[in-house]
Amino acid sequence: MEKILVVEDEAKIRKIIRSYLKEDYEISEAVNGQEGLELFKDSYFDLIILDLMLPEISGEKVCQKIRQISEIPIIMLTAKSSEQNKIEGFNYGADDYLTKPFSPRELLVRTKAILRRSRNQEKAGIIILNDGEYKIYHEEMIVKKDNSDCQLTSTEFKILMVLINNAGQVLSREQLADKVMGLEFSGFDRTIDVHIKNIRKKMQLEKDQYIVTVYGAGYKFTGDI
Q: Could you tell me which residues carry 4-aspartylphosphate (predicted)?
């Protein structure tokens, strides 16, 4: 059974999360950021559900510390609902973001989706698209179309993987730049657009095949993995 760490200071919310997830996952709980970090370091987990407004150490700092050593999927919970707050959450390293009050059923669905993608990526280190037309070798950083190497650069490959790992979610150009290259927000829109154009060309993708342009917002990955 996969293990989930819930870092949340509100007992009522922890109880709700546990009641909805306990049938499918083994749940561990931490009531503050420091306890969450200690549990994370002492045990193996498959996913973390992390509140941002925590006592002692904020959720943002917890996320940053975890991202220094691990790519474990993280779902952030927060009462902050503005677009800027969400962008900041993703830039701290979150894989998904739910605003309080949230639907426990939606949390369960998102948890299952993230863990399914994570399992798929880890399986033999290969991601398969379109019944084998495309094969993505994560460890080797290679993408093949019909067994021919698409010759993506390291940056192009990383952008593709970020989109795949966040499939269905719109990522802004700023988010992509920060996750892949650690760049500041302003001035890099065109850089990301050029990389996306090169990825599509090298993979011989049709317009909006897998990588969809969401005008005014960014890009998202669609399709079965």
A: 51
Residues of the chain with pLDDT under 50: 183-187
Here the CATH number for the domain that contains residue 181 is 1.10.10.10
pLDDT at residue 86, rounded to an integer: 67
- Considering the domain architecture, whether residues 115 and 8 belong to the same structural domain is answered as yes
Quick one: 178 and 210 in the same domain? yes
Same domain, 60 and 113: yes
Query: Structural domain tally of the chain?
Result: 2
Residues 78 and 12 in one domain: yes
pLDDT tens-digit profile of 96-124?
888 888 899 999 998 998 888 777 655 55
Please indicate, yes or no, if residue 126 is contained in any of the structural domains.
Answer: no
Q: What per-residue confidence (pLDDT) applies to 191? A: 80
Which structural domain range is residue 184 located in?
133-221
- Has residue 108 been placed in a domain? yes
* Alpha carbon distance 127, 117 (integer Å): 9
Report yes or no on 68 lying in a domain.
yes
Q: For position 186, what pLDDT does the model report?
A: 46
Query: Are 18 and 27 spatial neighbours (Cβ–Cβ below 8 Å)?
Result: yes
